[in-house]
Q: What sequence folds into this?
């Protein structure tokens, strides 16, 4: 009896007549084939010619989709089973059609390019029956298998039996009011989602809220935002983890992410806000720990609030306030209740930070500005040795033409200086700077404590490119640099007496920053790099013959007065043929990495030190340390024509070796002393002697 109202409705609609006449009369397997000769409806599910055999699939049909351009659902339809091998089942932009599968649905990863998936849009409801890709709480697949629930016009729904997804290997789109439901209970299928191994898009006012902790694994990533007036939201009541370097949390405006627990980040977290009227917000209830290569970027008017502590460990770091070399009109805001610590990590950018900052361990770098820029810090600022503050100077205006840090104590303390200061030019300013120019690179509302270890008050520090040097003044609450002096031409004071081809050597002198290139007796060297104003390293090129070394810097060229004797090394192991012939019986007889005499020094290091690799009593070692007044004298056996450096560290747990003295080569071998002036006044210090190659 119910057929008559349905028929009446169909007779009102011409499309209904077409559907009745084109529905297949026999059940079986039906494949999508896309008949492009029938525009504008050649993508439509309801076009009979799009199916093989011809006819719209019916209730007893098994439907197969294997084409990059899949069908657009434009009618309510019921089928027996569905297999998507390539392409997607999409929805016409209006109408809210429904697809019901009474048996099973299978979404297979595509074997060629493209993707495969289910796209529900515009009020559509896809009831998939038993989803064979789902078992044991895991939605199986790859990043190329996609499930898309969207609702820009009306909420769309994807539902399947027993849907309770704990882990996903497939890509999910949660857009607008789109929903993923359990077909049996109507419950949110993603309510307990805990692990993501693909991509999840929470965009266009989409919302995802889970019940506990959440982890991105493998290459899993969350993408949020996409223009509009309403936030997309992601809520995690537990901890959040980016578990690998390939995982990420990418938040674009408008979006709000709330994480109640701790965040552990091995991957990347990005906040991008292009419109301060809508906002991008990340709130973390616990700590934010960035490990290894874990990165954090806050761009535009983004806001990050952390109720615990933020820690950046080795190689990780944070980019604040926009992309490098791109001006931003907005102020990035970072608020951290219990401070931010950088352990061998970096902080760069512009914006306002509401937190105490501390830089610890070697490799920690604070480089304000995006060539250049201003960082305003509402909290204390502490540098520990051997960290570094890197500042760029490109004009006379602080914050826009040269980097500046403005520190406001807010009752938490001022600025404690340590580590080193590095200055560099941008925008070609080195050609127009005047000796009378003054640049206040750091200012505080409290008196400064300490100083940078590489430059005392009133002393000078070289620009990174070696073009000259600045006077540094610690005056009250400010650090200023002024009285720029152009560097004199570079000089070379010593080179090695000899070295094998392809080995790395050091050239010592003055004014050696900004090294551009080098030659050994006219043959171009490789690996040329300025270590400091007094040292350049380079590799002896293959084909070079004995002769002088020529260095080209950005402020001059210099040629060594002494000759480098280039030694043959037939097996390229870092030991000369003569050395291996003498001690191992042939030009290639020695193994560089073996310790032939068991003295704890490898054969190649014995070669570099000029010691005997077959005699355990012949090795470079500290033989005596004694006090002499306030000085400490370190004794060791030296070798003819070898240069040495005396180095010290305050700890062996996390050693940071610094040069105390450079000892030139002598014309004979024998016992030798190196002195640490005033070293006896320190509570503890560790020493070592190193050969300069």
A:
């Amino acid at each position: 009896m119910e057929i008559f109202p349905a028929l009446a409705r169909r007779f009102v609609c011409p499309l209904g007549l077409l559907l009745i006449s084109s529905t297949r009369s026999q059940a079986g397997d039906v494949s999508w084939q896309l008949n492009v000769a029938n525009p504008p409806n050649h993508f439509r599910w309801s076009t009979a010619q799009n199916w093989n055999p011809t006819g719209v699939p019916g209730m007893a049909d098994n439907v197969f989709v294997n084409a990059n351009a899949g069908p657009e659902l434009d009618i309510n339809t019921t089928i027996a089973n569905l297999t998507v091998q390539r392409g997607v089942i999409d929805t016409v932009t209006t109408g809210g059609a429904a697809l019901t599968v009474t048996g099973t649905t299978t979404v297979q990863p595509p074997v060629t390019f493209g993707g495969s998936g289910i796209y529900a849009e515009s009020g559509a409801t896809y009831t998939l029956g038993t989803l064979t890709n789902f078992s044991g709480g895991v939605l199986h697949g790859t990043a190329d298998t996609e499930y898309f629930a969207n609702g820009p016009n009306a909420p769309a729904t994807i539902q399947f039996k027993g849907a309770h997804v704990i882990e996903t290997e497939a890509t999910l789109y949660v857009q607008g009011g789109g929903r993923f439901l359990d077909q049996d209970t109507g419950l949110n299928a993603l309510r307990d989602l805990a692990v993501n191994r693909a991509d999840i898009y929470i965009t266009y006012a989409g919302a995802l809220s889970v019940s506990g902790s959440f982890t991105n694994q493998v290459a899993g990533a969350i993408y949020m935002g996409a223009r509009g007036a309403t936030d997309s939201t992601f809520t995690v009541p537990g901890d959040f983890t980016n578990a690998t370097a390939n995982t990420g949390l990418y938040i674009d405006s408008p979006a709000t992410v709330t994480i109640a627990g701790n965040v552990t980040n091995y991957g990347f977290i990005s906040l991008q806000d292009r419109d301060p009227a809508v906002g991008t917000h990340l709130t973390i209830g616990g700590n934010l720990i960035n490990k290894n290569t874990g990165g954090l970027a806050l761009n535009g008017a983004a806001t990050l609030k952390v109720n615990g502590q933020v820690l950046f460990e080795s190689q990780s770091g944070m980019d604040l306030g926009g992309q490098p070399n791109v001006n931003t009109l907005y102020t990035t805001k970072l608020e951290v209740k219990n401070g931010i610590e950088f352990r061998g990590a970096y902080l760069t950018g512009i914006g306002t930070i509401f937190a105490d900052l501390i830089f610890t361990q070697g490799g920690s770098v604070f480089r304000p500005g995006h060539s250049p820029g201003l960082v305003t810090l509402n909290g204390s600022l502490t540098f520990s040795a051997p960290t570094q503050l890197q500042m760029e100077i490109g004009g006379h205006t602080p914050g826009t033409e040269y980097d500046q840090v403005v520190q406001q104590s807010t009752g938490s303390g001022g600025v404690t200086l340590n580590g080193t200061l590095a200055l560099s030019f941008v925008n070609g300013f080195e050609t127009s700077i005047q000796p009378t120019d003054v640049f206040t690179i750091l200012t505080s509302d409290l008196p400064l404590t300490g100083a940078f270890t590489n430059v005392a008050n009133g002393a000078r520090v070289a620009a990174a490119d070696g073009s000259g040097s600045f006077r540094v003044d610690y005056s009250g609450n400010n650090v200023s640099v002024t009285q720029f002096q152009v560097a004199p031409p570079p000089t070379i004071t010593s080179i090695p007496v000899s070295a094998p081809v392809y080995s790395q050597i050091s050239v010592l002198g003055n004014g050696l920053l900004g090294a551009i290139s080098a030659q050994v007796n006219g043959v171009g060297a490789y690996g040329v790099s300025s270590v400091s104003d007094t040292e350049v390293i380079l590799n002896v090129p293959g084909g070079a013959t004995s002769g002088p070394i020529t260095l080209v810097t950005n402020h001059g060229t210099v040629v060594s007065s002494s000759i480098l004797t280039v030694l043959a090394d037939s097996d390229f192991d870092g030991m000369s043929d003569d050395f291996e012939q003498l001690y191992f019986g042939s030009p290639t007889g020695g193994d560089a990495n073996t310790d032939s005499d068991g003295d704890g020094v490898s054969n190649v290091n014995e070669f570099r030190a000029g010691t005997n690799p077959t005699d355990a009593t012949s090795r470079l070692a500290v033989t005596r340390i004694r006090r002499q007044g306030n000085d400490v004298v370190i004794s060791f056996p030296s070798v003819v024509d070898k240069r040495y450096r005396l180095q010290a560290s305050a700890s062996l747990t996390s050693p940071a070796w610094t040069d105390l003295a450079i000892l030139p080569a002598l014309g004979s071998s024998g016992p030798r002393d190196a002195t640490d002036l005033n070293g006896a006044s320190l509570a503890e210090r560790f020493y070592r002697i190193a050969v300069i190659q």
Q: What stands out?
A: Helices lie at 3-12, 14-22, 577-584, 603-609.
